[in-house]
Write a structure and sequence with these properties.
Strand order of the largest sheet: 6-2-1-7-8-10-9
Number of helices: 11
Order of helices and strands: HHHHHEHEHEHHEEHEEHEEE
Mean pLDDT: 97
CATH class of the largest domain: Alpha Beta
Structural class: alpha/beta
CATH topology of the largest domain: Rossmann fold
Shape: globular
Distance between the termini: 51 Å
Radius of gyration: 20 Å
CATH superfamily of the largest domain: Vaccinia Virus protein VP39
Bound molecules: S-adenosylmethionine
Helix content: 40-55%
Strand content: 15-25%
Number of strands: 10
């Protein structure tokens, strides 16, 4: 199946307009991933498919397009320096400011992919607050891909996937379910709420966050898209709240919204 220049332009315009993802240099990736999908599903051309997606941007095919074209690579303990920082600096601060208030810790993992990142955050929280019932440590985890969220919600991972986790965590928070598979215990799963959310949309979650993990997703966005997204996130964080981005990403030190703490760690001004 041939991907014409016109079809390629239509796809990249659609994906960028709706999801902010810049695929203009990813022609080979688009053709490779989409061709397989189209052939498997009986489409005769890219145009036929694009028409269906355009006609119903909230329909099943539009969702499938996102599922096929997003890059969801993640793994347990990725950039683990952030989890140490969370434990050492961020949670003691949240505990201090919240102790005499609502005692809820508001964390948003904003591009959670298949769940490795939010479950790790939850294990750090559970250790820190020692499952103290007085503290509400439920966190929000969102992604645009419904396919990855399905896996994330199940909380099921292969033995090789959980290999990077410390043994103590494996024992405390996971159960072997069959053969090579492990599942997070219910006490952890129920404290991670997964939702579909497009980072290009207005943020409508209630309350302001103490911590936002926005790691390894802005690499797909252009500067202006990043700037606007950071503006929306700024509005939904408490003063002094912490923002973690990917260790290879940067938001600049003088954007006026977030104070630089160390590479990839910022505080809302
Ligand atoms: C490379 S993964 C990063 C996963 C994890 N944060 C990490 O650092 O390991 C990027 C994720 O961002 C999601 N994503 C891309 N564009 C998005 C958008 N506009 N809204 C929400 N999620 C998006 C993708 O679906 C993908 O799962």
């Amino acid at each position: 199946m041939q991907l014409s220049d016109n079809e390629f332009q239509q796809i990249i315009t659609y994906v960028k307009g709706r999801y902010g993802i810049d695929l203009s240099k990813k022609r080979v990736l688009i053709a490779g991933r989409l061709e397989n999908y189209l052939l498997r599903n009986g489409y005769k051309s890219y145009s036929e498919y694009i028409q269906i997606v355009n006609k119903n941007p909230d329909g099943a095919e539009a969702k499938n397009l996102v599922n096929v074209l997003t890059t969801n690579h993640t793994y347990f303990m990725r950039e683990s320096v952030h989890f140490d920082y969370l434990r050492q600096y961020v949670l003691p601060w949240v505990k201090q400011i919240q102790a005499n208030k609502s005692r809820d810790v508001r964390v948003w993992c904003a591009a959670s992919s298949t769940g490795e990142e939010p479950y790790t955050i939850q294990m750090v929280l559970s250790d820190f607050f020692n499952m103290d019932k007085m503290w509400d440590t439920q966190i929000l985890a969102t992604d645009i891909s419904t396919r990855v969220l399905q896996k994330a919600k199940s909380g099921v991972y292969l033995e090789e996937e959980i290999a990077p986790l410390p043994d103590a965590w494996k024992k405390k928070y996971l159960t072997k379910i069959d053969g090579e598979k492990y599942q997070f215990k219910e006490e952890i799963r129920k404290k991670v709420v997964f939702r579909t959310f497009n980072l290009m949309d207005n943020i409508t979650f209630k309350g302001k966050f103490h911590v936002v993990f926005l790691r390894n997703v802005m690499i797909y966005f252009e500067e202006e898209t990043k700037r606007q997204l950071l503006g929306r996130i700024y509005e939904h964080m408490v003063e002094g709240g912490y923002l973690f981005i990917g260790t290879t990403e940067s938001i600049g030190k003088n954007q006026g919204m977030f104070q630089y703490m160390q590479p990839s760690v910022y505080r809302r001004i």
